[in-house]
Amino acid sequence: MARIGYARVSTVRQDEAPQVAALIEAGCDEIFQERVSTRLPAIKREQLQAVLSRLTKGDTLVVAKLDRLGRTQVEVINCLHELQENAIHVETLDGLINTKALGKFAPVVVGMLTGLAEVERELIQERTLESIAHRRATGGDLGGRRKSYTPEQAELVRSLRAGGDSFRVITKKVNLSLGAVQRILA
């Protein structure tokens, strides 16, 4: 009856260390961790597959939050159903889920929680798209990489190149990087 932890973050900018530390504190005997988006199907999340194949009857899978197991309500519920079919318990560190304590009500509670998380994700995406549309319509800042040169510098680069100057000479005359000069002339 082992307690096995699974930590996952979606991007290289995120750090799974806080999840790992919390799993250690929660008494996990073994911890699997990875950096992979849930946009990949579960079968391609190697450490998730490793932890699922490691679990045996009576074990408890411990995750920081339920959304670490999947992106959609269906995916999470299917994962939990399969674990429960094999008498494997699931516990979240945020305290929302403990299938051992919930017993037969676990699927109902999990369904509600994952459904709410999915709705929240969709609302965030909708608000983001609305914000971008508004900024585009009103000439607002859309973010992205800023140009490292002024329009005057760009015009000077074009005229120097038309005059036959090499890229190296242009970079020195205009005080721009080679990459900036290449972007202007592309």
Brief rundown of the structure:
It contains 8 helices and 4 strands.
Beta fraction: 5-15%
- Roughly how many Å apart are the termini? 62 Å
Can you count the helices?
8
Shape: elongated
Structure in words:
The chain is of the alpha/beta class and 186 residues long. Helices cover 51% and strands 11% of the residues. It has 8 helices and 4 strands. The protein has helices at 17-25, 46-54, 73-85, 99-102, 106-137, 151-162, 167-174, 178-185, and strands at residues 3-9, 30-35, 60-63, 89-92. Strands 2-1-3-4 form a 4-stranded parallel β-sheet, sandwiched between helices. Strand 1, helix 1 (17-25) and strand 2 (30-35) form a beta-alpha-beta unit. Helix 3 runs antiparallel to helix 5 (106-137) and helix 6 (151-162) packs antiparallel against helix 7. The termini are far apart.
Give descriptors for this structure.
single chain; alpha/beta; 8 helices
Q: What is the element layout, followed by pairings?
A:
Elements: E1 3-9, H1 17-25, E2 30-35, H2 46-54, E3 60-63, H3 73-85, E4 89-92, H4 99-102, H5 106-137, H6 151-162, H7 167-174, H8 178-185
Helix pairs in contact: 3-5, 6-7
